[in-house]
Protein backbone atom coordinates (compact mmCIF):
# COMPACT_ATOMS: atom_id res chain seq x y z
CA UNK A 1 0.00 0.00 0.00
CA UNK A 2 2.62 2.55 1.06
CA UNK A 3 4.84 1.61 -1.88
CA UNK A 4 2.11 2.10 -4.48
CA UNK A 5 2.82 4.95 -6.90
CA UNK A 6 -0.51 6.68 -6.24
CA UNK A 7 -0.04 6.71 -2.45
CA UNK A 8 3.57 7.88 -2.71
CA UNK A 9 2.48 10.67 -5.08
CA UNK A 10 -0.19 11.82 -2.59
CA UNK A 11 2.36 11.76 0.24
CA UNK A 12 5.03 13.47 -1.85
CA UNK A 13 7.62 10.73 -1.27
CA UNK A 14 9.70 8.61 -3.59
CA UNK A 15 11.62 6.29 -1.25
CA UNK A 16 10.62 2.68 -0.70
CA UNK A 17 8.67 2.25 2.52
CA UNK A 18 10.02 -0.35 4.96
CA UNK A 19 8.17 -1.81 7.93
CA UNK A 20 11.20 -1.65 10.25
CA UNK A 21 13.85 0.81 9.15
CA UNK A 22 16.77 0.12 11.50
CA UNK A 23 18.06 3.72 11.39
CA UNK A 24 14.68 5.12 12.40
CA UNK A 25 14.28 2.35 14.97
CA UNK A 26 17.63 3.22 16.57
CA UNK A 27 16.56 6.85 17.00
CA UNK A 28 13.68 5.70 19.22
CA UNK A 29 15.85 3.68 21.61
CA UNK A 30 15.54 6.37 24.29
CA UNK A 31 11.83 5.54 24.50
CA UNK A 32 12.32 1.77 24.53
CA UNK A 33 10.46 -0.18 27.20
CA UNK A 34 9.22 2.69 29.35
CA UNK A 35 6.14 1.89 31.41
CA UNK A 36 3.59 4.64 30.86
CA UNK A 37 0.68 2.62 32.22
CA UNK A 38 1.02 4.23 35.65
CA UNK A 39 0.53 7.67 34.13
CA UNK A 40 -2.78 6.82 32.46
CA UNK A 41 -5.04 7.17 35.53
CA UNK A 42 -3.93 10.80 35.96
CA UNK A 43 -4.44 11.52 32.26
CA UNK A 44 -7.89 9.94 32.35
CA UNK A 45 -8.71 11.83 35.54
CA UNK A 46 -7.78 15.07 33.78
CA UNK A 47 -10.29 14.29 31.03
CA UNK A 48 -7.73 13.41 28.37
CA UNK A 49 -8.95 10.80 25.91
CA UNK A 50 -6.86 7.63 25.83
CA UNK A 51 -6.89 4.90 23.18
CA UNK A 52 -5.14 1.56 23.58
CA UNK A 53 -5.20 -0.62 20.48
CA UNK A 54 -3.70 -3.95 19.50
CA UNK A 55 -3.81 -6.21 16.49
CA UNK A 56 -5.30 -9.61 17.15
CA UNK A 57 -2.31 -11.28 15.44
CA UNK A 58 0.32 -9.37 17.45
CA UNK A 59 2.57 -11.76 19.36
CA UNK A 60 4.80 -8.97 20.72
CA UNK A 61 2.10 -6.91 22.47
CA UNK A 62 -0.84 -9.30 22.28
CA UNK A 63 -4.38 -8.03 22.55
CA UNK A 64 -5.29 -10.39 25.40
CA UNK A 65 -2.55 -8.99 27.65
CA UNK A 66 -3.33 -5.42 26.67
CA UNK A 67 -7.02 -5.89 27.35
CA UNK A 68 -6.24 -7.55 30.68
CA UNK A 69 -4.21 -4.62 31.99
CA UNK A 70 -6.80 -2.10 30.78
CA UNK A 71 -9.44 -3.99 32.76
CA UNK A 72 -7.20 -4.24 35.84
CA UNK A 73 -5.99 -0.63 35.83
CA UNK A 74 -7.15 1.39 38.82
CA UNK A 75 -8.80 4.65 37.78
CA UNK A 76 -12.02 6.50 38.53
CA UNK A 77 -13.86 4.93 35.59
CA UNK A 78 -12.71 1.35 36.14
CA UNK A 79 -16.16 0.04 37.08
CA UNK A 80 -17.77 1.66 34.03
CA UNK A 81 -15.01 0.38 31.73
CA UNK A 82 -15.23 -3.16 33.08
CA UNK A 83 -19.02 -3.12 32.78
CA UNK A 84 -18.90 -1.86 29.18
CA UNK A 85 -19.43 -4.34 26.36
CA UNK A 86 -17.10 -5.14 23.50
CA UNK A 87 -18.93 -3.86 20.44
CA UNK A 88 -18.29 -4.42 16.77
CA UNK A 89 -16.05 -1.76 15.27
CA UNK A 90 -16.98 -1.14 11.67
CA UNK A 91 -14.83 0.21 8.85
CA UNK A 92 -16.34 0.62 5.38
CA UNK A 93 -19.30 -1.55 6.32
CA UNK A 94 -17.20 -4.47 7.60
CA UNK A 95 -16.43 -5.55 11.14
CA UNK A 96 -12.77 -4.59 11.59
CA UNK A 97 -12.46 -5.27 15.30
CA UNK A 98 -14.00 -5.02 18.75
CA UNK A 99 -14.15 -1.80 20.73
CA UNK A 100 -14.84 -1.08 24.39
CA UNK A 101 -15.27 2.49 25.65
CA UNK A 102 -16.18 4.08 28.95
CA UNK A 103 -15.85 7.75 29.68
CA UNK A 104 -12.65 8.86 27.94
CA UNK A 105 -10.95 5.46 27.75
CA UNK A 106 -11.09 3.11 24.75
CA UNK A 107 -9.62 -0.31 24.03
CA UNK A 108 -9.68 -1.46 20.41
CA UNK A 109 -8.82 -4.93 19.09
CA UNK A 110 -8.06 -4.72 15.37
CA UNK A 111 -8.75 -7.87 13.35
CA UNK A 112 -6.15 -9.42 11.05
CA UNK A 113 -3.38 -7.10 12.25
CA UNK A 114 -0.07 -7.82 13.89
CA UNK A 115 2.29 -5.52 15.76
CA UNK A 116 2.23 -3.02 12.89
CA UNK A 117 -1.50 -2.34 12.62
CA UNK A 118 -1.07 0.45 10.02
CA UNK A 119 0.98 -1.87 7.81
CA UNK A 120 -1.42 -4.81 8.10
CA UNK A 121 -4.70 -2.89 8.08
CA UNK A 122 -4.03 0.58 6.60
CA UNK A 123 -7.68 1.46 6.02
CA UNK A 124 -8.66 0.44 9.55
CA UNK A 125 -5.65 2.26 11.05
CA UNK A 126 -6.52 5.45 9.20
CA UNK A 127 -10.17 5.19 10.26
CA UNK A 128 -9.09 4.61 13.88
CA UNK A 129 -6.71 7.57 13.88
CA UNK A 130 -9.16 9.92 12.19
CA UNK A 131 -11.96 8.91 14.55
CA UNK A 132 -9.75 9.31 17.61
CA UNK A 133 -8.35 12.75 16.75
CA UNK A 134 -11.78 14.02 15.72
CA UNK A 135 -13.42 12.80 18.93
CA UNK A 136 -15.67 10.26 17.22
CA UNK A 137 -14.08 7.12 18.65
Overall 3D shape: globular
Order of helices and strands: HHHEHHEEEHH
Given the helix and strand composition, which structural class is it?
alpha+beta
List the total number of helices: 7
Uncertain runs are none
Largest sheet, strands/sense/barrel: 4 strands, mixed
Distance between the termini: 24 Å
Please estimate the helix content: 25-40%
Give a count of the beta strands, DSSP E runs of length 2 or more.
4
Q: In order across it, which strands form the biggest sheet?
A: 1-4-3-2
**Rg calc:** 16 Å
Describe this structure in words.
- This protein is an alpha+beta fold and 137 residues long.
- The chain has seven helices and four strands, in the order αααβααβββαα.
- It has helices at residues 5-11, 22-27, 40-45, 63-72, 78-83, 117-120, 122-133; strands at residues 50-55, 87-91, 94-102, 105-110.
- The chain has a four-stranded mixed sheet.
- The model has no long low-confidence stretch (mean pLDDT 93).
